[in-house]
Design brief:
alpha/beta; 5-stranded parallel beta sheet; 20 strands
Length: 524
């Protein structure tokens, strides 16, 4: 198994409990995946912690106390370490070990997994728990590698933290990571330049501390909360307004959006059920958002640059913030519009745009990830007939249910393309996938079979189903990382399954109940 983030940790627990021998390789020197690497200031989850936590063990969910509605990165990392120790999982995880090759022995139907450290393991099943956001994107800016100041990437942040006091700092990127980090860096730095290529929609996070009473109430209702989450569109117990935006009155629209705005968080983009379906509905949300944001930015010309005009609200993952837009009212913060004046090169300690030069002590890349497929690509996976997965996916990822790939028997890619993935609460999604894989393994064993392999026709149908469902929404209309649009040369395919977490859960359960319809069951 590759990866010891939320998915890998639970997969280890579950499969080991089922009697399998499991070896996990993890590139990081600690467990936690995305929460191990992304230690930048302000890093926090945008799903409520009561929901963004494991449900598999009732005692665990009753005993753990979250201190805030949206936990910070250090708290989530403590939680996952707690889980690893509580269930004695560490002994099967080899840290600091990057997997370099995953090759099928077609005769024996076993996977040979090799690591940079020289490990060679032969396994019947290979589970990829790589995380969709694990391959940091370093932009190709001429001269970047020889930047004379301190260079950071939000997803590779130093463990001891960084003190920007008295420093001239540049941040490239205004996605979720940049939007969380920028207000914190602005409070420390002497001068902050934000280099923005695309403006982004962000809503107030609405974080609050949790007290004992709040926690007691959450825990008393956990079972119902989980049930609703599993049936929901995104893996949290949210219900949209019971009417379409296009059918709502102006008052209803204002009140519903205001209520969500006050609650805070990403669910703003799901206030109405049709918000991501038609541009008319989406525009009602966009207009409300715009009036709120314009009201907190002092300089209207800065507001103009910070308001997106190139994609519907929510068609890129909506960001959540703590006084992000207000940060531009500070006199030590300047916004550099890269659309008008692109970065041409890095020269010594300067970022040179087409019309100016910014001398910096530190440069922060908040430039995101080669998401969903970037880390899979690096594993050099070779399946039947010497076919590489990279070739099979050259025009975009092709899976059946996200879980099976034709020509790659017993290889399971968790929470990746073809599944709801990043559109859902990743912790419950990981549990859903791992439980499905564990059941499939048991099914094979009880039927005297050795392997499960997606059939090419099932893959073709699922790829079409995913693409048709995405086309019925506004999601493909943005140049988002969901579409691979942030990486030059990457195929433009909407990668996650957009039909909803609950619907997806039902589909994969029905496939299992029908004897793994669409998969070949290979006898020993
Ligand atoms: P994102 O959302 O991919 O944001 C990356 C940002 O970096 C975005 O504003 C990009 O602009 C910008 N970027 C990337 N390359 C460049 C170059 N070459 N020049 C200038 N600007 C650039 O990554 P995050 O880490 O913020 O968030 C990822 C997910 O983590 C997030 O959605 C949550 O789910 C958690 P662009 O928009 O491409 O013009």
């Amino acid at each position: 198994m590759v990866g010891a983030g939320f998915a890998g940790v639970y997969a280890l627990y579950k499969l080991r409990s089922q009697g399998l021998t499991v070896q996990v390789f993890e590139a990081g020197d600690g467990v936690g995946g995305v929460w191990y690497w992304n230690r930048y200031p302000g890093a926090r989850c945008d799903v409520e912690s009561v929901d963004y936590s494991y449900s598999f063990d009732e005692e665990l969910q009753q005993e753990w106390d979250w201190s805030e509605k949206y936990a910070t990165q250090p708290e989530i990392l403590r939680y996952i370490n707690h889980v690893v120790d509580r269930f004695d999982l560490r002994r099967n995880i080899k840290l600091g070990t990057r997997v370099t090759d995953v090759v099928l022995d077609e005769e024996k139907l076993r996977w040979e997994v090799r690591t940079e450290a020289g490990d060679v393991v032969s396994a019947r099943f290979c589970v990829l728990a790589l995380g969709p956001l694990s391959n940091a994107n370093i932009p190709s800016i001429p001269g970047l590698e020889s930047f004379a100041g301190d260079l950071y990437h939000t997803a590779r942040w130093p463990h001891d933290g960084v003190d920007f006091t008295g420093k001239r700092v540049g941040v490239i990127g205004t996605g979720s990571s940049g939007i969380q980090a920028i207000p914190c860096i602005a409070r420390q730095a002497e001068q902050l330049y934000v280099f923005q290529r695309s403006a982004n929609y962000s809503v107030p996070a609405g974080n609050v501390p949790l007290d004992d009473a709040a926690r007691r109430e959450q825990k008393a209702n956990y079972a119902e909360r989980r049930r609703l989450s599993m049936e929901s569109g995104g893996g949290s117990p949210h219900q949209p307004y019971p009417k379409r935006a296009v059918d709502a009155t102006a008052d209803e629209l204002r009140n519903a959006y205001e209520k969500r705005w006050q609650l805070g968080g990403v669910l703003f983009s799901k206030t109405f059920p049709d918000q991501m379906i038609t541009i008319e509905a989406n525009d009602t949300a966009r207009r409300f958002w715009e009036s709120k944001v314009r009201a907190v930015i002092d300089d209207p010309s800065v507001a103009e640059l910070l308001i997106p005009n190139d994609h519907p609200i929510g068609s890129k993952r909506i960001c959540t913030d703590d006084n992000y837009f207000q940060t531009y009212n500070r006199n030590n913060v300047a916004l550099v519009n890269l659309r008008a004046t692109p970065i041409e090169r890095i020269d010594g300690a300067s970022v040179r745009t087409s019309d100016a030069s910014y001398v910096l002590d530190a440069l922060v890349l908040a430039t995101g990830f080669d998401a969903m497929t970037g880390s899979v690509e690096k594993l050099n996976i070779v399946g039947r007939g010497g076919q590489t997965l990279n070739d099979v996916w050259a025009e975009g990822p092709k899976t059946y249910l996200g879980l099976g790939i034709a020509g790659f028997p017993n290889l399971f890619n968790l929470t990746g393309p073809g599944s709801p993935s990043v559109l859902a609460n990743m912790v419950l999604h990981s549990e859903l996938h791992v439980d499905w894989v564990a059941d499939a393994v048991r099914y094979l064993d009880t039927h005297g079979a050795v392997a499960l392999e997606a059939r090419p026709d099932a893959v073709a149908d699922w790829v079409k189903e995913c693409s048709d469902r995405a086309a019925g929404t506004l999601m493909p209309s943005a140049n988002s990382w969901y579409m691979g649009a942030n990486i030059p040369g990457k195929p433009r395919v909407f990668m996650p399954f957009v039909g909803g977490f609950g619907v997806y859960g039902q589909i994969i359960a029905e496939v299992a109940a029908a004897g793994y319809k669409g998969f070949d069951i290979i006898e020993g």
